[in-house]
Amino acid sequence: MGTIVSQMPVAEGKSVQQTVELLTRKLEMLGAEKQGTFCVDCETYHTAASTLGSQGQTGKLMYVMHNSEYPLSCFALFENGPCLIADTNFDVLMVKLKGFFQSAKASKIETRGTRYQYCDFLVKVGTVTMGPSARGISVEVEYGPCVVASDCWSLLLEFLQSFLGSHTPGAPAVFGNRHDVVYGPADTMVQYMELFNKIRKQQQVPVAGIR
Amino acid sequence: MSGVRAVRISIESACEKQVQEVGLDGTETYLQPLSMSQNLARLAQRIDFSQGSGSEEEEAAGAEGDAQDWAGAGSSADQDDEEGLVKFQPSLWPWDSVRNNLRSALTEMCVLYDVLSIVRDKKFMTLDPVSQDALPPKQNPQTLQLMSKKKSLAGAAQILLKGAERLTKSVTENQENKLQRDFNSELLRLRQHWKLRKVGDKILGDLSYRSAGSLFPHHGTFEVIKNTDLDLDKKIPEDYCPLDVQIPSDLEGSAYIKVSIQKQSPDIGDLGTVNLFKRPLPKSKPGSPHWQTKLEAAQNVLLCKEIFAQLSREAVQIKSQIPHIVVKNQIISQPFPNLQLSISLCHSSNDKKSQKFAPEKQSPEDHLYVLEHNLHLLIREFHKQTLSSIMMPHPASAPFGHKRMRLSGPQAFDKNEINSLQSSEGLLEKIIKQAKHIFLRSRTAATIDSLASRIEDPQIQAHWSNINDVYESSVKVLITSQGYEQICKCHSTRYMQFSSLPRLWAGRY
Q1: CA distance B88 to B63
Q2: DSSP track, B180-209
Q3: 8 Å CB contact between B393 and B399
Q4: What stretches of B11-140 show up as alpha helix (H) in DSSP?
């Protein structure tokens, strides 16, 4: 259950695709077996101006995310706020709530890739795309047996080191806040949301080989 | 005159003489009082003869003037002047009115006498009595009571007879109805067993299991028609029924599912041989009308078709190590090597064509009736599942589906959990497992028996439990040494499951 979502920076001189290929080859050499594909996507909504009032406060941003790992669920979260896990009918509900939540233009961001199973570890390597352009690489590692986040952090770190090398991330904020609390799929989605936001702020990945 | 003195008032009696005139000197001249005859005359004058008879009302005035007038009118016209004088002088002769009245009375009496004399002759005039109510004869009260009682009893008897007549009529009608039933009463009986609805001028019924939870796409409608081919001239047959049902053509006849296990696999050419048979019609319950047997048979055919359709669908879709073969009306699978399980749908329609085929010899060991029965049970289980409360949504606006599936969204189930929710095994797999279990059980029993008969020391006894599951059986094997049974025992209990190897749980003490 314990999951870490991190970003793998693109190797220098290589495109996103090539880096992903490198990673997957490493994983296959490790002995992981391919188990299909995965997809995580995110849409942004902001609260409509009509509900803000005359104070002119900035509207909150709401993210509606889907994860192929939980195919019948839909996640809705605010930046620092609660995360709602709902049925897939939630998307239809959002259409009805057009008056309150307006979708930010060109905000759909998603990551797609392959899913590898290595004993108790589930590794997902995906390409983060926004529209037609690839913006980065996301790596998710899940350790199935453990549900308490803080307990498996070190194990995950070691595993990540084995194939990410120097790009191993630090402890995610999710782990730091709560100790001995059961990890849930909502926490994974929060991590993804943070990752997407980070990638959005980054500049576009320079296309290699222009020169 | 002055000098008022007390006036003396004197009261005089009435018998004082009336004063005729008072002289100038105060002397009074008295009238002579009436003499007796004069008094009588005066009184007689006062008599009103008209009042007593009451006949002539115009003379009911009762005054002397009236009498005088009448008397005056009665005179002849010659005496008109006298009449005028008479009128003005009413007290001409006090006896005049009396005389006139008497004269009129005499006239009337004479008339009456004349009338009576004429009536007596009965020639020109008769007297008829006025009709009166018959007076009850006072002389015979008993006979009257008897007669009245007789009449009332007769009336009561009439009512009772009428009622009895009606009852006997209805009883005979009912008895007649058993033989010659009315269409509407038959329709009522049909409605008690089957669902009917009216479409236009046709009466259609539903014999499918759709209302019980089946999802088979067959419509299963039958039509109710009036039986009009009754020849009134001929005698009505015993089993005549004014109602007939028309079932869809593909549900005619009777059908059953045959499950059998064969040791060796037959030739490829033998596959798919249609097991035609001429099965004797199942005996209907005595007293149940012919349409009931017809409809029940058709419903059974529909159920068998559904079972077979479900099995063949699963046989094609589900991947297994040894693929199942579906040929025509037979499904063949191999649970164990050299063991073949064949499930076939045997449907015989009632047309003349099929009766030409010679009936196949059906050996009783061929059928595995237990499995056939289980197939029926399983499909009914499946039907019930679609209607169970697990599937029916609460609240009513929630989508259909298994209860836990509805929670899988909000609780973020992953793929493994979702797969575990969905029913994994189909009908075919269950039946194959059951067949495997049956085979293994018989094999194990044979093995234990052969061992027991072969090995004399120690003695082996096997006690099979009567209560078994479709997938599990239990047997208690006692291994004893002759003469030492009480001292030391070693027994083992085996629980068998459908899988290829029987698992052994041993207890020893």
Answers
A1: 14
A2: S--HHHHHHHHHHHSEEEEETTEEEEE-SS
A3: yes
A4: 36-46, 49-53, 64-74, 80-88, 95-121
With H, G, I as helix, E, B as strand and everything else as coil, classify residue B174: helix
Look up residue B20 and give its two tokens. 């005729």
B397, B406, B407, B415: best to mutate for the A interface, most A CBs within 10 A: B415
pLDDT digits (tens, 9 = 90+) for B368-396: 788 888 888 888 888 887 777 666 776 77
Give chain B positions within 8 Å (CB) of A87. 406, 409-410
**Domain spans in chain A, listed from the N-terminal domain onward:** 1-41+107-201
Joined tokens for residue B27: 């002397």
Tell whether A122 is within 8 A of chain B (Cβ).
no
Whole-prediction pTM: 0.53
Nearest to B410 among A69, A86, A184 (CB): A86
> What's chain A's length in residues?
211
Q: Ranked by mean pLDDT, which of A29-38, A145-154, B130-139 comes out on top?
A: A29-38
CB of B470 within 8 A of CB of B373?
Answer: no
Q: Measure the CA–CA gap between A4 and A182, rounded to whole angstroms.
A: 14
Question: Which residue from A69, A87, A184 is facing B410, i.e. has the nearest CB?
Answer: A87
The string of pLDDT tens digits covering residues A174-202 is: 666 666 778 888 888 888 888 888 888 87
Residue B217 in tokens:
């796409």
A86, A62 Cβ separation under 8 angstroms: no
Pick the CATH number of A1-41+107-201 from 3.40.50.2020, 3.40.718.10, 3.40.50.1820, 3.30.310.180: 3.30.310.180
Does residue B395 sit at the A interface (CB-CB below 8 Å)? no
Whole-angstrom distance, CA of residue B39 vs CA of residue B47 = 13
Among A69, A86, A87, whose Cβ lies nearest the Cβ of B414?
A: A69
Q: Is A72 on the interface with B (CB under 8 A)?
A: yes
- Contact criterion met (CB below 8 Å) for A75 and A66: yes
More confident residue, B79 or B51: B51
